[in-house]
């Protein structure tokens, strides 16, 4: 827990509690009808402030932004407090404490709202800057991957006859670089492509055919005639990546199954195999349950690609163990 973040959000709730006391005290004296209306409104607004503090603390708001919201709240109290103090000093009124509390509660809420919008504006600007940087980085990475893969393939042709073993090893590295380039491109395009209606069953049939042709693997498919979801053509990349992983890691005679079912408002697609499974550390990294470090960052782009593409469609990815003894990855997508 970050003490400064806690203190900032707690100050919002504390403001509501402090302002609530004189308002409730006034209501207990039996004021006239208008006083009751103002009192009830003040109570609701003050309770709202108490709740806002808890909500801001629970939300994914950075410490800096939490302090910024608390600062707006403090500014509202100071400015309005100074104004009403001068007014009531100049012309004293009955029940000044009650009126003071109601006015401050309304002003505090208004300034908290301003603070929230200010934080959202700043966050939007930060995201736009990050997106621009990532776009530039993505372009550079893809260019370099493509360039290095071409250089390796050129080198392969020069040594193929004299050293075929080395040539095969270098060619495999070049193919991996080319595949990585394609994966980066798929993620970028998935983010920029508007989801439409896609038939999951038809997509899986295409993936099964690809697996048979490229890896010589027979994939068992259990799916309805059609099952439409909100996605794009890059759903095939995500499913294909899971099948490719299963084919590569499940041994010489892999057993790979794809199961598609309709579950309420979603369609669930599960790819299961009889391989060694996905390491727990890898699953936690991709699921966001473990922090990425220089030593722990996953073994490749494959599972990240699956997660990013599926989440872009409003879906979820779940990792588990299959009845075959290996991994089971379930993709849940909203029905079209």
Write the layout of secondary structure elements.
Blueprint: H1 3-27, H2 33-58, H3 63-90, H4 96-159, H5 164-192, E1 196-199, H6 200-215, E2 219-222, E3 228-231, H7 235-249, E4 256-263, E5 266-273, H8 280-287, H9 302-312, E6 316-321, E7 327-334
Helix pairs in contact: 1-2, 1-3, 1-4, 2-4, 3-4, 4-5, 5-9, 6-7, 7-9
Can you describe this structure?
It catalyses: ATP + protein L-histidine = ADP + protein N-phospho-L-histidine. The chain has 336 residues and is α+β, with helices and mostly antiparallel strands. The chain has two domains: 1-192, no CATH class; 195-334, Heat Shock Protein 90. 66% of the residues lie in helices and 12% in strands. It is built from nine helices and seven strands. β6 (316-321) and β7 form a beta hairpin. α7 (235-249) runs antiparallel to α9 (302-312). The two termini are 41 Å apart.
Summarize the structure.
This protein has 336 residues and is an alpha+beta fold.
Mean pLDDT: 83
> Are there runs of 5+ residues with pLDDT below 50, and where?
none
Q: How do the helices and strands follow one another from N- to C-terminus? A: HHHHHEHEEHEEHHEE
Backbone structural class: alpha+beta
Cα(first) to Cα(last) distance is 41 Å
Largest sheet: 5 strands, mixed
Q: Over all CA atoms, what is the radius of gyration?
A: 30 Å
The number of E-state strands comes to 7
**3D shape:** elongated
**What proportion strand?**
5-15%
Number of individual domains: 2
Helix content: 55-70%
**Separate helix tally:** 9
Cross-sheet strand order for the largest sheet: 2-4-5-7-6
EC number: 2.7.13.3
Domain Histidine kinase: 140-336
GO molecular function, one term: protein histidine kinase activity
Protein name: histidine kinase
């Amino acid at each position: 827990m970050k003490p400064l973040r806690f203190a900032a959000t707690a100050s919002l709730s504390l403001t509501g509690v402090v302002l609530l006391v004189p308002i409730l005290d006034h209501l207990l004296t039996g004021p006239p009808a208008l006083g009751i209306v103002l009192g009830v409104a003040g109570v609701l607004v003050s309770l709202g402030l108490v709740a806002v503090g808890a909500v801001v603390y629970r939300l994914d708001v950075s410490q800096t932004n939490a302090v910024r919201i608390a600062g707006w709240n403090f500014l509202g109290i100071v400015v309005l407090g100074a104004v009403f103090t001068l007014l009531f000093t100049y012309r004293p009124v009955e029940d000044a404490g009650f009126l003071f509390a109601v006015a401050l509660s309304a002003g505090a809420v208004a300034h908290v709202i301003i603070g929230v919008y200010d934080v959202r504006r700043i966050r939007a600007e930060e995201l736009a800057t990050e997106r621009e940087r990532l776009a530039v980085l993505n372009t550079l990475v893809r260019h370099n991957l493509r360039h290095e893969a071409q250089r390796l393939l050129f080198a392969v042709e020069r040594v193929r006859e004299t050293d075929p073993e080395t040539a095969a090893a270098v060619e495999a590295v070049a193919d991996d670089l080319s595949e990585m380039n394609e994966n980066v491109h798929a993620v970028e395009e998935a983010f920029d492509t508007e989801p439409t209606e896609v038939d999951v069953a038809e997509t899986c049939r295409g993936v099964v055919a690809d697996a048979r042709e490229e890896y010589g693997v027979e994939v068992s498919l259990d799916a309805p005639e059609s099952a439409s979801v909100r996605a794009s053509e890059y759903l095939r990349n995500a499913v294909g990546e899971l099948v490719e992983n299963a084919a590569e890691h499940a041994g010489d005679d892999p057993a790979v199954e794809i199961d598609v079912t309709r579950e309420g408002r979603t369609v669930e697609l599960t790819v299961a195999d009889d391989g060694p499974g996905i390491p727990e550390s890898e699953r936690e990294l991709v699921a966001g349950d473990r922090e990425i470090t220089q030593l722990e960052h996953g073994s490749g782009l494959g599972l990240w690609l699956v997660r990013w593409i599926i989440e872009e469609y409003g879906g979820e990815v779940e990792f588990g163990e299959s009845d075959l003894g290996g991994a089971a990855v379930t993709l849940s997508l909203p029905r079209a």
